[in-house]
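ok trying again, last paste got cut off:
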Amino acid sequence: MDEDSRQYVYQSLNRPSIGTVVELCRTLDIESKYLGNSNINQSLNKYPHIRNEFIGHGYVFKDGVKELCSQLNELSHILAKHIRILSQEYDLISVQKLTDKGYKGINYRNDGQKVTAWFYPKSDNNALKSDSLYLVDKFDDFHRLSPFILISNFGKNIYVFSSVDEYLTGRVRYNRLLETDKFSLDCKEFENVSMSNDGLKNKSINGTIRNVYRNNFKKYIDTGLKKDIVSFLKKNESSNSATIWGHGGVGKTATIQSIADDLSAEHEKHFEYIIFVSAKDRKYDYIKGSITEIEDNISTYIELVEIINQVVFGVSNMDINRILAYDGKMLIIIDDFETFSFEEKENIKSFTKQLSINHFKIIITTRSNTTIGIQFQTNELSIQKTTEFLKQTLDNEGIPLGLISTQRIDGNKKKIHNITSGRPLFIYQLAYVIAKKDLETALSYDINSTKAAIEFLYGRIYNYLSDTSQDLFIVMSALVTEKDLSNVISKVQYALNLDSDIKHFNESLDELIKLKVIEIDDDRKIFTIYSTDILIIMKSYFEKRSSSFKGNVMQRIAQVNQDKDVDIEYSLLKTAHNNRLTRNEVTVIDSYKQILNRATASKTIKLEAILALTAYLNEKGLRREALDIFELHNPKFIVITQSSRADKVEYANYTKMWATYSYGGGTFKEKRKAVNILGNYISVGINYDENIDLELAGLLLQYRSWLYIANKQENLSRLQFKEINKGEFSKVKAELIKECKAIFHRHGNHLVQKVMQIKLSDVSSAARQNIVIAFYNYVEVLVDLNKFQEALSICDYVLDYGPQHFSAQFNRKKSHVAKRMKHKRPSIKKRPRR
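nice, full thing came through this time. structure:
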């Protein structure tokens, strides 16, 4: 039979009408041996009319029975007269099995009364098929009826062919004779039927032509990915390419091969050609638990082009022009894309971009994070789906479980998932071990942790990674141990000096996560390497790196400490502190500045670094450099009224130390700078209930009062030594009076009123110290303003509630106030004119 006729026959078996059945009979009678007679043809032509007229709905009215029987008898006589097989008596033989001696089965006698055991010796002239039904005449001529007629239950159940429901699996629907019933069965005769096969390509039942390749599965079990990929292939018009991306053993290849089978078996043809090529050069043999080499793979772009040209155009060359000009529909599948070299990958990518979206679809499968077109990611199965997949696999392999074993599988769901990682490849292996041993023994196998499994999954993973991901891959190994496989992600980032490129770092980190090299916590702070076996692979690649790379990485790791419980910023701070004892001045300063320049360092860390650095600089006599540090970083700490308490406390501590170093400089300019620094802080808003605010308020009053006193004494000395005349001094006095009033109204009065309401013993020692010293200086300001009672009240308050070691000073200060009060002669206030 020619190819077109074969294709017509197979396609017509999908829900055929009675008219189609008649046409099929004519087509199958190739030599017109049976249906060449005109009488037979005329009778067969009448049958569809008889069938539709009398029994179209499956039953006949009572008054039509006689006429129907007459019509059927006439047809039967004509067929029997001209077709010998219909005029003889035959037994029905159900061949059940073949033994060493011959065939055994059941004989259904032609009288319909007897059912007997049957045996027939094996002969080279008569090879029968097991599980088949035959017509046998008295001369022992066998005519096979299967798969169109089935008999079971010793002849009580007889089924006749209705239609082929699914060509991929060969699923056939049968109708039962004499009783209402339906039955479906997978028949190998209709499974994945090929119209032609020349060794290079085959033509499927719907006309799709595929190159010859071997599927890597026996019976596909869908994990839920096929639907989306099929939708892309049939409906997507925005891209011609897609990537099935995922880890080893999760079913990427099996999924796309199964889709290719589906597309070839469907009634409608979507692609004229399906080309499948693979760069896979090894596979994991789940039966033996070992890795085996594959030889019929491709490794170059040229080989891909040659195969397409050979299958589609019948020529084996590397000319792509014919392919680019192809105006049909073609699906190109490139399996294991990560195995190609970088250059070949780029060539293939360039090639796919030239293919028309109207005529081509390209699917690649890969373990690497290389994405061409739309991405479909495959993942390990969940605990529940792993169990379901295992049960389905056992069923497909014909391994009976029984109720007890099924319950034991359900009771060990987590264990099964752990030893298989939810990867179909390892689930198949577990099913094989269960079949070979038993469930209990199988569950003791660490299937996913064997040397072969680790090598298959991760042995080449380094080559699949992007350049930065490769760096992450090896540096992580330097931060962990076999006893503790986790550490802080930010330390990897620091070790590779990627602090300023957070986006790129996170993309590279996600590569390792997707490939199941590492897992991270929900906060993306801690990474954990999946196993010590992976760690060993990582370390081996680290050792292959250059000495300069390793040295630089280890130096930076040493700076941040390998202890995962210590944050990287604190680690850097600790390293900087330690450097003060052992390293030179430049190294110490640089180690602190490194922290200050890190975008990821918190304000708290930076504050501690600034305070430590400025203290170090001050100790080294570099006070000017310390003040420059404060000036430079001040904008980072300035707060507003609505700022949080934590921010304000940090700003307060920053301000205190900056003002302290500035005031300690000796010059009036630097001391006035200190007052301005403190004034800026107070201007934001002060809370006298906070110790730090009391401390700074006291410091401001202390500094400003002292500056006033020092300024007054300096000008009195200048007048005494005639450096200025009385007229010039009068102008100075006027400014000093303004300063006194400003101190009183802006700072002194508010602080005194607040402090008088509390006990000095209730505030912090630092606040208490600053307040007492401030009051001592401030009393002089009050005296110069003739506010003697306020001055005496302050002295009494300190004497009653202040530290004892200030008593002598405030007693003397009190006497001084009393003396001035008696004379009422302020030292600078203008006397009224006479």
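cool. The longest strand covers residues 157-166. The longest helix spans residues 726-756.
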